[in-house]
């Protein structure tokens, strides 16, 4: 997909959202007045992962990257330090790794679920309860921000992104390990 440049809100009309799954384009969602799109690429600094096509004449509103980051990103994404995340995880929060399965297999936070960012919208309703608490993470925090934004927009109330991503958590765990005995 193309590089993300805008966040869009459908003012009038309806649109379909499609992705390439198993080699063919598949419609995965429909959007109507008030729905938005484009945030994934802006928040994660990745290319777009879906195609949105208007199904009828309509009107869109859009915000450029800079305005989106100034206006929408800060209040929606709540960040936790690795120490705070460890405490919340011990209290039962669901830890979700939004990286690719190949990245998760190489190294992951123990007990985390792996749901790649591109599949999060589709899998959240099947796997999660709205009252659960969530900590989302990736390698650096960029995909985590997109995941937290998505889950919050889907109505999950307590969603946190791990500050510093997996690398930050691993540093925290190393600090917590007792020094080797001589």
In short:
This protein has 182 residues and is of the alpha/beta class.
Overview features:
182 residues, alpha/beta, Oxidized Rhodanese, domain 1, 3-stranded antiparallel beta sheet
Describe this structure in words.
The structure is a single chain. By secondary structure, this protein is α/β, with parallel strands linked by helices. It folds into 2 domains: 6-71, Jelly Rolls, CATH 2.60.120.10; 77-176, Rhodanese-like domain (Oxidized Rhodanese, domain 1), CATH 3.40.250.10. 35% of the residues lie in helices and 29% in strands. The protein contains 8 helices and 11 strands. The strands form 3 sheets. It has a 5-stranded parallel β-sheet with strand order 7-11-10-8-9. Strands 4-1-6 form a 3-stranded antiparallel β-sheet. Strands 3-2-5 form a 3-stranded antiparallel β-sheet, with no helix packed on it. Helix 4 (82-90) crosses helix 8. The termini are far apart.
Approximate strand percentage: 25-35%
The top-level CATH class of the largest domain is: Alpha Beta
Low-pLDDT parts are none
Count of β-strands:
11
Please write out the topology:
Blueprint: E1 6-12, E2 15-21, E3 24-31, E4 36-37, H1 39-44, E5 51-54, E6 59-64, H2 65-71, H3 73-76, E7 78-80, H4 82-90, E8 94-97, H5 101-106, E9 113-114, H6 120-127, E10 133-137, H7 142-153, E11 158-162, H8 165-176
Parallel strand pairs: 7-11, 8-9, 8-10, 10-11
Antiparallel strand pairs: 1-4, 1-6, 2-3, 2-5
Helix pairs in contact: 4-8
């Amino acid at each position: 997909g193309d590089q993300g440049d805008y966040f869009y809100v459908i003012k009038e009309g309806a649109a379909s959202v499609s992705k390439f799954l198993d080699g063919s384009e598949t419609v995965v969602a429909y959007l109507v007045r008030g729905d938005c799109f484009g945030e994934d690429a802006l928040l994660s600094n990745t290319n777009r992962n879906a195609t949105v096509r208007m199904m009828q004449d309509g009107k869109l509103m859009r915000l450029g990257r800079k305005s989106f980051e100034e206006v929408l990103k800060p209040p929606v994404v709540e960040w936790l330090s690795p120490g705070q995340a460890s405490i919340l995880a011990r209290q039962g929060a669901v830890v979700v790794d939004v990286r690719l399965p190949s990245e998760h297999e190489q190294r992951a936070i123990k007990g985390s679920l792996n749901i790649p960012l591109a599949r999060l919208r589709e899998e959240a309703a099947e796997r999660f309860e709205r009252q659960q608490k969530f900590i989302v993470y990736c390698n650096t925090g960029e995909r985590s921000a997109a995941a937290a934004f998505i889950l919050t927009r889907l109505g999950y109330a307590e969603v946190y992104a791990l500050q510093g991503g997996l690398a930050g958590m691993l540093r925290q765990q190393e600090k917590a390990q007792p020094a080797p005995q001589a």
